[in-house]
């Protein structure tokens, strides 16, 4: 909470001192701070709906007139360890246009391929093929660090090298803003669900172009202000990570040690478990639940209907709760046929693939629903469903279902693995006490997490609005001085 408040205060403090007031973003996001700046003295219509009016002395033009080189990439052949070349891929680009080069590919390229695709400082690389509109057109700028790698780029990327009419640093902001990304999404042609760009399409993107001296002012302004916002976003992301870590620690402590730290303990010699209260039992899941099974997995689409009985899938399962996002439905007659996978209140469902072992309790909203490819743990009088769900989402259970005998991570959580999970089981009354404690404590942590996520969302909106306002000339940033420099 303190970090959230500090972030809000910091954003509010980091403003530029304007001659006249113009705030490009208002509403709730404005409460997190805004850069006030004057408008230009005169505007003209750009003739492009998504750009609107631009300063009267700016140009609006297709990108192709600003490009010196517009080239596809190469992949080459398998490396042989002799003069191999680093080839960057679109997976090394983040969705917001940053580099994340951790384990780059090394390939064997011919001399001609290297000459054609060698990257130099100032080049811009665009992802030109993706199944997601979030990734199509994402653009990274080759800086000095990347250029020093003497690297090339893959055939799923397009390199543009600008002429002297547009600064690469400003183009990077433009191409990663909605101004360009919406055009990329619209212009990309789709084949089998995969959106594709090419050099011609990229050249058709229309952008506003200020005079060169203003370009430098805008790029410097955005670099300075976006850096401040990025720092605040990083603080909030660290807070989210700390809250997640705290939540997991609280759960693991409660479901293996209990709430009374004065009771005698016993060490069962299991490294990942440690000591548990002496009056608890360590028992396999199959010995105290009402049964384990798996939801329908064979051609479930033949049972689908536009409406009917909800059929839960892994994407509907979160830790401790179920969501109705992208629900599918079974025909009532199909549901009657598939009673083995029908759900009742206080049953548990666990994910098999994706985030294996993630477990939720079936509540009233999904009583009588069906499910697809989920492990179903039937309720019994021996346990509190919410206590068991907390235990199954704890680190002690994750160690068991994620790691095999040789330490390889399992991508599937199956009934056999679930049946043999070792659970530290307290008496039923104590299970209820622990559940009440975890519901309250985790609820408080979840509320703080939601606050931090809202702050991140507002900061990102603020950043996007600031970039859009600056690159389309809605604010005049020439000569603006940050408060800390003007003071």
TrEMBL record:
Gene Ontology annotations of biological process type: DNA restriction-modification system
InterPro entries per record: Restrct_endonuc_typeI_TRD, Restrct_endonuc_typeI_TRD_sf, Type-I_RE_S_subunit
Ranges in coiled-coil conformation: 442-469
DNA-binding among keywords: yes
Gene Ontology terms, MF aspect: DNA binding; endonuclease activity
Domain Type I restriction modification DNA specificity: 97-223
Keywords (A to Z) from UniProt: Coiled coil, DNA-binding, Endonuclease, Hydrolase, Nuclease, Restriction system
One Pfam family this sequence matches: Methylase_S
Protein family according to the UniProt entry: Belongs to the type-I restriction system S methylase family.
Protein name per UniProt: Restriction endonuclease subunit S
């Amino acid at each position: 909470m303190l970090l959230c408040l500090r972030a809000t205060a910091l954003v509010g403090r980091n403003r530029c001192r304007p001659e006249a007031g113009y705030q490009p973003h208002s509403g709730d996001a404005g409460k997190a701070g805004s850069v006030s700046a004057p408008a230009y003295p005169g505007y003209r219509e750009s003739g492009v709906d998504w750009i609107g009016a631009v300063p009267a002395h700016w140009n609006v033009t297709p990108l192709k007139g600003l490009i010196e080189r517009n080239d596809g990439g190469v992949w080459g052949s398998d490396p042989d360890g002799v003069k191999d070349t680093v080839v960057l891929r679109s997976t090394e680009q983040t969705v917001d246009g940053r580099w994340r080069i951790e384990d780059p590919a090394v390939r064997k390229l011919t001399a001609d391929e290297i000459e054609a695709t060698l990257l130099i400082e100032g080049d811009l690389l665009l992802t030109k093929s993706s199944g997601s509109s979030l990734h199509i057109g994402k653009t990274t700028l080759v800086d000095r660090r990347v250029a020093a790698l003497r690297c090339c780029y893959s055939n799923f990327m397009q390199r543009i090298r600008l002429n002297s009419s547009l600064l690469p640093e400003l183009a990077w902001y433009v191409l990663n803003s909605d101004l360009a990304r919406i055009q990329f999404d619209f212009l990309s042609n789709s084949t089998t669900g995969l959106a594709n760009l090419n050099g011609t399409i990229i050249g058709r993107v229309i952008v506003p172009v200020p005079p060169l001296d203003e370009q430098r002012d805008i790029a410097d302004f955005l670099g300075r202000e976006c850096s401040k916002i990025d720092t605040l976003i990083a603080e909030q992301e660290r807070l989210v990570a700390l809250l997640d870590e705290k939540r997991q620690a609280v759960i693991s402590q409660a479901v293996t040690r209990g709430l009374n730290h004065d009771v005698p303990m016993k060490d069962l010699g299991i490294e990942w478990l440690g000591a548990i209260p002496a009056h608890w039992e360590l028992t396999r899941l199959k010995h105290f639940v009402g049964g384990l099974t798996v939801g329908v997995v064979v051609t479930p689409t033949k049972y689908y209907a536009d409406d009917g009985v909800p059929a839960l899938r892994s994407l509907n399962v979160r830790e401790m709760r179920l969501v109705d996002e992208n629900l599918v439905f079974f025909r009532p007659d199909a549901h009657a046929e598939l009673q083995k996978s029908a759900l009742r209140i206080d049953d548990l469902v666990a994910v098999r693939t994706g985030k294996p072992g993630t477990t939720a309790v079936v509540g009233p909203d999904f009583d009588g629903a069906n499910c697809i490819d989920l492990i179903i743990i039937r309720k019994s009088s021996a346990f509190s469903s919410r206590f068991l769900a907390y235990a199954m989402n704890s680190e002690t259970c994750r160690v068991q279902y994620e790691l095999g005998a040789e330490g390889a991570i399992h991508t599937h959580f199956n009934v056999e693995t679930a049946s043999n999970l070792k659970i530290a089981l307290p008496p039923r009354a104590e299970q209820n006490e622990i559940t009440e404690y975890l519901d309250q404590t985790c609820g408080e942590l979840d509320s703080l997490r939601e606050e931090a996520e809202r702050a991140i969302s507002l900061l990102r909106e603020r950043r996007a609005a600031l970039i859009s306002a600056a690159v389309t000339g809605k604010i005049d940033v020439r000569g603006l001085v940050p408060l800390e420099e003007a003071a």
